[in-house]
Amino acid sequence: MSASRRRFLKQAGGSAAAGLMLGLPEGWVGSAFSDDSPETKTMRFGIIALTDCSPIVMAHELGYFKQFGIESVISKEASWAVIRDKLSIGDNQATHMLIGMPLASTMGLAGSPVKPMIIPWLLNRNGQAITLNNTLKKAGVKTPRDLKPIADKAKAAGEPLTFAMTFPPGTHAMWTRYWLASGGIHPDKDVNLITIPPAQMVANMKVDKMDGFCVGEPWNNRAIIDGIGFTAITTQKMWPDHPEKVCAFTEEFAAKNPKTVKAVLKALHLASVHLDNLDNRAKAAEVVARPAYINCPPEIILQRLLGNYDYGDGRKEQDKYYMIFSSRDCNYPQRAFGMWWLTQFRRWGMVKGAPDYQGVAKRVLRPDIYLEAMKEMGVTPKVAEIQKFALFDGIPFDAKDPEKYATAFPVHNLS
Hints:
415 residues, 5-stranded mixed sheet, alpha/beta, 17% strand, 20 helices, globular
């Protein structure tokens, strides 16, 4: 080594600059590496047997979690209530979750103890549906207005129709409520609304326990394959590119483990990009179909995963709004989506008075964490904050005045 080079290194005092001059790896600081590894090395991820658990499963199976320093364990749970409880008490450190659940847990709604949770990542958009039984198919029901006279007659006879969703403040409950109410059917007064875990929907319809259900795939398609019902409407027909499942953490865990949370998001990014290449979806369907995950024939999963929709009543289409995992800013946690959910909590009497729309959405939906993780990966999405949109009934939502929207519906539980 030349005398001038030795003098430079001595003056640099073993600094990062000296390390770079010697060609040492980026991150070298003095005699050690800066520690960017996750604080929690082993992570248990809760999932429910639904197609939209795919990003978590594939991040595990493809080694993406391990790539970012996490030993992942996938824990298939029996119901959304178990998902909530296991995250709350720390048995699972991250989880597949309905977007409404972290909001409800943070606020202590619907029987949930107050346990603040965060959403730094949306797992998917689209891909749920409302399934009705064959009796309603024979009656020609396609819309909630078609259903209303049948529901009214059943109620008058003292045997109201029964519809199942998967968790009271969750997505499937809100899609069911919104769809029924758009046809003048009050979900809490004109029909029975019950809670059934996703994987048990088809079995319960087979024994005539309900007239319809709302759930994620593959269980709507399974009902058609098994010949017990048909798809009345997909949720993407109600709201194209709607938010659906999320990857949630408790607020406490995220505060103590910021590097861990970002490592999870980085792995999910790679898995989500992989999944949105349709050439990879056949193999992904085979993987998530395994008993450890969904436990369903892969072809039933793959059909709708490719946007190939057979509604079971003669209607068929290639739906451009099939389930996505990465494209069209899918993963960005838009705070307006959280506010929309709060309007539905308000509409259906789950909260007393107007909630703190802005405050709760800001606390739970965390685009700051998402953007920081993506920046560290060299991914710089230029995402516009959504302010206005409308569902299929055309009632306009504006994030600047969510209370106006919440109180605009003719069918409600407002006091």
